[in-house]
Amino acid sequence: MFDAIADVTRRRILALLVDQGELCVCELTAALDVIQPKISRHLCVLKDAGVVLPRRDGTWMFYRLSASLPAWATALLKALPDGAVAEFKADLKRLNVMPGRPGRCAA
Known about the structure:
With 107 residues, the protein is α+β, with helices and mostly antiparallel strands. The protein has a single domain (2-91), classed as Orthogonal Bundle (Arc Repressor Mutant, subunit A). Helices cover 51% and strands 14% of the residues. The protein has helices at 2-5, 8-20, 25-32, 36-48, 71-78, 88-96; strands at 22-24, 52-57, 60-65. A 3-stranded antiparallel beta sheet has the order 1-3-2. The radius of gyration is 13 Å and the shape is globular. The relative contact order is 0.22.
């Protein structure tokens, strides 16, 4: 778990997932202003560590925090958007102005 969250890009992804609940790879790409292969690589690390879960909806890949995380891990992650990730406000601002955000269906 700690190795997975040691990287700043992964912490930025997790802060957005804590705040938004579920995001598509394209939303994370726009919010972090990082290329898609880099986002996908970081999501793979988080998935392999059991921190996030993927969900496919047609061509879209959505990610959310794993519901099976221990309480201490969930508490740690919930602190990320509350000041532990300096880039969070700028990332959230870019996400909120992203054109053509994908719709959601029931997970």
